[in-house]
Amino acid sequence: MPSPSSQASKQPAIAIQCARARVSAWLSCHKRQASLSILLLVATARTCRDRLRELIEQYQHTTNNRFEEINHDQQIFMEMTRMKDEVDKLETGIRRYTGDDLSSLTLSDVNDLEQQLEFSVNKVRTRKHELLSQQLDNLRRKEHILEDQNSALCRMINENQQDMAVGRRDLKLTEMPLAMLPPSAFGQAAAAYYGGESSSSTALQLMSAAPQLHHGGFRLQPTQPNLQDLHHGHHGLQLW
């Protein structure tokens, strides 16, 4: 009869054998790649690493696969190859959008490309109309500003012209001889010369004498002797 200590030492070995049998049965039934790791806490001298190595070797033997060791250079080469393929696809798509490489396209591909281009053209036209509308609004605002400035300049020019016309008329009235003045100008000339209400009678006298001055050749002379025109032969009309 075996002792209890010998039976206790055989139990971990029996458990390991049962686990192996279960793994082998599962892999043989499914036959697909799987990542399997079993940690068994057993009271033996074997480490977990040894147990994992054995399980991996058993898995490889069952699935007929081997893990290939890939170094760093191969990984870089594979990444560069993938990026090159992606760049080639992008360049091919650009050439198709520009209409340079259409020989390899089928009718369905051409229809899809046409729809994509029409959609893009519609978006571009919409943006173009928005920009044109913004520019048109800016031009209209500038037009209103220029119209206001033009109106202000026209008013200033008209006011200056009116002031200049009044100044020229006053200058002509002051420089024109009395005999050449119209009858209506005597009142303004007398008022400008004498000023105030005291010159009203003198202005009336000048206006009544205007027809005679035109025919008789009389000239208006001041009462001061030194200002009288001694060299002219016509009669002088003195004002007082």
From TrEMBL:
InterPro entries: TF_Kbox. GO terms for cellular component: nucleus. It comes from the Eukaryota. Residues 73-163 form the K-box domain. GO terms for molecular function: DNA-binding transcription factor activity. This is K-box domain-containing protein. It comes from Eleusine coracana subsp. coracana.
